[in-house]
Amino acid sequence: MTNYVNIQQPQRRGSVWQRTALVLLSTLVALVIVLAFFYRQSLSSAHAGHAPMMVDHAELSVQTTAAPAAGVDQQIVHAVRSTPPRAVALQSLAPQTSSQPAQWGQVPFAINEAPVANPGSPQTVVDVDGDGSQLVQLFGGGSYDPDEEGTIVSHVWSSDSGIVIPAIPNPVVDFPVGTHTITLTVTDGDDETSAKSISITVLAPEETQIYYRVNTGGGVTVPSDSSKVTWSGDNFQYKSLYLTTGENLRPYVTQLPVDISDASLKNKAITEGMMRSERYLETDGVAGQVMGWDFPLPENTAVEVRIYLAEVWFESVDERLFSIAIEGETPPQFNEINMFAQFGYHHAVVLTETLTVADGNLDIDFISIIENPAVKAIEIVEPGARFFYENFLYLPVVAR
Predict the structure, then answer these.
(1) Which domains, and CATH codes, for the chain?
(2) pLDDT tens across 232-265, in order?
(3) Long-range residue pairs from 340-345, CB within 8 A, at least 24 positions apart, any chain
């Protein structure tokens, strides 16, 4: 009988596992080294010089110089946009020969936003008396600082024509005939600035049939037709240059639409938005009080006065009653005006009067009888003036 000996070779399981572990470990170490290298390179370039940094939930790394100065290189300042909780970890990436204390603290801070410059809307006015210039009210009071509790500390105006403009929000400036570009620069409490420019145009008298336009209770407004002269402003931020008499003068704006389909408004340069705002005299029920307007004109000037009206507050008869005197006289159409009874609620009209102004100043007085006199707009023009042609170029017709 033949005997067989079964000899089993020992399995080298330990050696296989060791090799596998070593390969995985080597790969992992290499990957970590590569990632660490690029990570530190990016941080070093981003944070060189130890300038303040702004990050969101990011890891930060700073390297000191070879010979750090005490209290300088060791102070690291970071601004972080995030909400609590905030985690802080300090890790040494190189051998250190000594230890230094590290402290973490936080101080709330706000990011300053630049102010917003608002020089108002472009304006076109008329050199009414023909002396070569006209006073214009500028409106920079609408500028603001968007920061919480922020303020505008200075308003500085400049002009491309070299006109000196007072450094106040709403200066009155005498502009020569022509077009001027003016710039308003505003500064906030943190020395941030912003600027915006508009144009101011002064027309010579022969360029238009318009003397004055005032959007009473509202802002500067472009006319609805093609005429050149803008409606000047007179609202809660500033009072019209020509509103000269009266205490407790108030602006008011209704949110409801106003009907401007009345036949008297045909070919007029008003907008529906203008008829929503008004300037009124608060009388507390006392009769005989006056809201007075004065418009300088050359002596012996023939004018057509247009008074735009609408009842946008009272909703019944006899709640408001007033008269309008022109140069001290009250024409029949301006006597004891009851807007609700005569025109209805939220319905606009224009009442007119033609006269010659002898003394060089057109005086318009709104006189209270019951409650508060109110007006939507005032327009002073040449008698029978029409403006639809002002911005058109007419060519001669050649007969064939």
Answers:
(1) 112-207 (2.60.40.10), 208-386 (2.60.120.430)
(2) 999 988 899 999 999 999 999 999 999 999 999 9
(3) 340/311, 340/314, 340/315, 340/316, 341/317, 343/262, 343/309, 343/310, 343/311, 344/259, 344/311, 345/311, 345/312, 345/315
